[in-house]
Amino acid sequence: MTTRITNRIANTRTNNSHISNNKEEIEIIEYGLTCIFNLLTPVILLIAFSSFTHNLLYLPFWIISFLTVRSFIGGYHAPPQNKCLFFSTSIGIISMMLIPNLIPHLKYITISIALICLFIIKGPILQDISYSSKRLYLYIGGILTSTITLSIAIISRNYSNNISNSIYLGLIVAYILYTIELIKREK
Fold first, then answer.
1. pTM over 0.85, yes/no
2. DSSP codes joined into one string, the chain
3. Is the CB of residue 44 less than 8 Å from the CB of residue 120?
4. Contact criterion met (CB below 8 Å) for 124 and 74
5. Does residue 9 have a pLDDT over 70?
6. Cα separation of 115 and 64, whole Å?
């Protein structure tokens, strides 16, 4: 469905402008539109859900902690594009539902430390072989961002349990996807 929409927009755009109908240019426009659509769809749905459940304040903390850590550690990606969009949005919605219901507890710190230790042992998951030259950068970045994120979650506990919970959940969800991909690759 996304491909059809982006194809139609790209063809309309090139037909109604000075851009040539070069097939390569149309493919570049389609790719860019697909990337924008894949990024905006879950974000818009999460903003709508978070507004509806009065968790909009916590969404940026969750997104920043999740994306920052995930960009270094890697993790599971649902193969077809539509499944990936559904999966990403579902994870965010579940996290938004959990934020106000988590009770501050030492177990979140313990779980986070255990997941960071797993990363230290296993290292980053590379989705593309061309990233192998960046393995050390991703490894160090993964350790630093995970440790900083955990520290911010602990410190923010003094100010707001829900902000702290959203940061913990962003970290833990990123590591859940990391662990799923590790298990999948070891089969």
1. no
2. -HHHHHHHHHHHHHHTSSS---HHHHHHHHHHHHHHHHHHHHHHHHHHHHHHTT-TTTHHHHHHHHHHHHHHH-----SSHHHHHHHHHHHHHHHHHHGGGPPP-HHHHHHHHHHHHHHHHH-PPPSSGGGGGGHHHHHHHHHHHHHHHHHHHHHHTTT-HHHHHHHHHHHHHHHHHHHHHHHHHH-
3. no
4. yes
5. no
6. 18
Cα separation of the two ends of the chain: 32
Q: How far apart are CA 141 and CA 147, in angstroms?
A: 10
Tokens standing for 33?
Answer: 């539109």
Residue 11 has pLDDT above 80, yes or no: no
Q: Are 119 and 143 in contact, with CB atoms under 8 Å apart?
A: yes
Token output for 64: 């920043």
DSSP letter string, 86-118: HHHHHHHHHHHHHGGGPPP-HHHHHHHHHHHHH
What confidence tens digit (pLDDT) does each residue in 25-64 have?
777 777 888 888 888 888 999 999 999 999 999 999 999 9
